[in-house]
Amino acid sequence: MKRSLIVLMVLLTGLSGFSQKFEGLAPTPPMGWNSWNKFACDVNEKMLMEVADAMVANGMRDAGYEYIVVDDCWHGERDSLGFIQASPEHFPNGIKALTDYIHSKGLKFGIYSCAGNTTCAGKPASRGHQYQDALQYAKWGVDYLKYDWCDTEGLNAEAAYTTMRDALYAAGRPIVFSLCEWGDNDPWKWGANVGHLWRTTGDIYDCFDCEVNHGTWSSWGVMKILDMQDGLRQYAGPDHWNDPDMMEVGNGGMTQNEDRAHFSMWCMIAAPLIAGNDVRDMSKETLEILTNQDAIAVNQDKLGIQGFKFAEKDSLETWFKPLEDGDWAVCFLNRSSKVANVDFDWNTKVYDELSKRDLNAGETVYSLFNVWTKKNEGTTKKAINAKIPSHDVLMLRISSM
To answer: Domain range for residue 130?
Structure first.
C-alpha cells in the first residue's frame, strides 16, 4: 500500500507542470560502454562486473569512459504491483547489487527500456509503467537510461519521450536520458528539451561502408551513418548531442585502419563515445584506439561544437572542428580503396558558421600535431603533403603559436 501511495504522489508531481530534464549531466558527449553490439541478449551480472573490472584495469575509466550500460534482455517480469524486476536467472543478486558494484569501481550504471509495450527483444517495456520504472531505476541507483522505440504503434514520439523525461524528473535521481527512436521523427528538432542525446539513424553495423537489409529495416556501416549526419550539426551542443550510435571498434568486422577512421570521425562529430566491443579481451591496437587521449580531447572539447565536412574530392574528405582556446582539429578521411594523396594549403580560407571563427593561417601561424603518431608535423607556414592508406585518416590538432 505504501509503495502505491508513493507512485501516486510521483504521478501527481509529474502532472503538475514542473517537470523537465535534469540539466548539466552531459556537458560533453557521454563516454561509456554498452552490451548490445557484441553480446546482444547474452547479458548477465557476472559479465557486467567483469567489464567494470576490465575498464578500470585497462585504463578506459581513466581515459574518460564512465557508463556501463546493459542493453535489452536484462528484464524479468513485473511484480504484483507492476514494478519491473531483473531476470533472476541472469541477475540473481538483482540490479541494485550490480549497480553498487559498478559504483564501487568509480563507474556509473546505465539501463535499457523502450517506449512501447515490449522491447525490441520482446521483453516487458515501459508503456503505461513510465513512473513506476523511473522510481525503480532511482531506487536501484541507475545513472543512464537508453530508451528505445519498438512496439510503439499509435504513439507520438515527442510525447512518449517527454512522458519518460517527466517520470525520471519526478523520481528525483539525475539520470542521463538517451533517446533511441532512430531519427525517424526528427528528434534533433525537439530532443534538446527532452533528453541529453538522441539517435540520428538506425542501427550501426560492423563494417566500413555497407548496408545490411533486414527486410523492413536496415543496419548501416560506419561511412553510411557518417553521411546521415549531414545537416544536423547545428542541433548539437553541451547537454544535447546527436548520437550516430554506439561504436564497433574492436568487434572484428573492420581493419585497424577502419577502426581508427571510425573512432576519429566519431570524435570529430562530437558523437557520444560508447564502446561496443568485449573490453575484457581486446588487442593492444584496439585499446590504443579507444584510449587515445588526444583524439578523445577533440571529442570532449568544452566548446561543444560538432565538426563539419569542409571539402570532398575523389573519396578524400577534409573535416574541421573548432576547439576551445582558438585551436582546431582537422581530419583527412580516405574513403577510397587506394592510397590517397593529401596536399592542403593552410592559406585556404576556412570559416565555421557556428563558432563564427576563421582558421586564418595567413595571419596566424599554427603548429600541427598528429593525433595518431603523436608527432609534430611542422606549422601552417608550409602546405601539408602526405599519403593516407586506404580507409584511414590523417588527424591533426592545430594550435596557434
So the answer is: 2-299
